[in-house]
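Researcher: Next entry in the queue.
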Amino acid sequence: MHFKYSICLLSCFAILSCQKKDKIIKVDNEPGVHILQGEDNEMNTAIENAQNSLYQFRQAIESHNPDYYNFALKEKFTTPDSGGEHIWISEVQYSDYKFYGIVDGEPISTMEVKLGDTIEVNPQNITDWMYIDKNIVKGAYTTRVLRKRISKEEQKQMDRESGFIFENE
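Model: Structure for this entry, 169 residues:
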């Protein structure tokens, strides 16, 4: 499965701040982009958990385990309204204590990056991480929050289409 599709399927979304009432924007024929406004304690906790466990992502990527693939980081970029836009970075590599990857979502508000740009990820702006271990999703803390907000049928459809299993759900 093409990584761009799978990452979009898992949660191609931007966060402009955070609030539980999601506004969904459709970009061409891609999955919806979730726009969250205001304070969202559940999402903020997910971001904090991702940041506190980033060492697990680094250990996995450095292990070169052939069962691990589709390494991705989510980075927060500035927006004109100062809210911020969170975009997945795919094909992540780790070299000289730095993460590099490709912008894997079409930016909605930020002018800092474009879809397909190869960037150095700012570690201070990492808001989530994920990788796949034998079809099991590791990390993806913010995606898990969004999954809880969709119906069980939508979750099953997402799982069928991606072929991935979310750990500990």
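Model: The two ends are 23 Å apart (CA to CA).
Researcher: Noted, moving on.
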